[in-house]
Structure formats: C-alpha cells, structure tokens
Amino acid sequence: MEECIFCKIINGELPSFKVYEDEKVFAFEDINPISQGHTLIIPKRHVENLWEIPEEDLAAVHFASKKIIRAIKDALNPVGVACLQLNGRGVNQVVMHYHLHLIPRASDEPQLPVSSWELKPGDMKEIQQIAEKIVAAIK
Ligand code: 5GP
Ligand code: ZN
Fold it and tell me: Which domain holds residue 85?
C-alpha cells in the first residue's frame, strides 16, 4: 500500500522506535502515547482490519504480543496492560493498517481512558436478542 504510513514504517521509509520484528510482524512505539510504553504491533502484510486479516497474520501478531507484553512487564513493571484494536473509522480507527495497541499503565499514572467506563446493566431481553442474531450469523 503506497500511501500507508505503517507500510512505510515497515519499509524504513518513515522512522520508528522499533521494539520487535520477525518474518510476519513489526512492533514499534506509538508517537502519541497514551502512557509510557504504548506499543503498536502490526502485520507486515497490509490489511485494514479484523474482518480482512488472514488467520496466520492474526496469529503471528498475537503470538508476538505475548513476547512483547512480557518484555513490557519486565522493563516497566506496569500495574496492568490494556490491549486495544479498533476496526473501522466509526470507532476511531485512524490508521487503516491492522494494529494491536499494547497500553501499559504505571501505578502513578491515571486510569486509562480505554479501560475505564461506567457499568450500567443492560436490558436482558435485548441482550438475548442481539446474541441470537450474532449466533445465527456465525459461519
Ligand atoms: P488507531 O486509532 O487507528 O487505533 O490508532 C492509530 C495510532 O497510530 C495512534 O495511537 C497514533 O498515535 C499512532 N500513529 C499515527 N501515526 C503514527 C506514526 O507515524 N508513527 C507512529 N509510531 N505512530 C503513529
Ligand atoms: Zn499498510
């Protein structure tokens, strides 16, 4: 993908703070970090989202996430690490190249906006109906 900034980062056309690379995966620091150690893991093959990603690339990204989250734990001693992955502009996916965010939180950092929301009980009938719709669409 010619204009994709993450493809350019993989190719070295744009600089990045790389933390990990293997045959299928590239990982680097986010330049607008929500917290210290905010890391992005991407497949080398350009694909936009979870609907499109081939299973082998998905597996490779998530296997790498285990390696990197372990390094984040050892290096930064966070109290937790949020994994976030957005699909579609409607949920604020900004870079249209699949990426998994690893967002650690240090004990002295505020709660992460991506992991703190108010719990409000839903309508059980509605939840059941939605679940049935999803079940019927599973292939
Ligand atoms: P999204 O909302 O698509 O899940 O998040 C895209 C992420 O990519 C954002 O957190 C943003 O800071 C990060 N980002 C955007 N452009 C660049 C860039 O050129 N280099 C790096 N390292 N991160 C970027
Ligand atoms: Zn790309």
Answer: 5-110
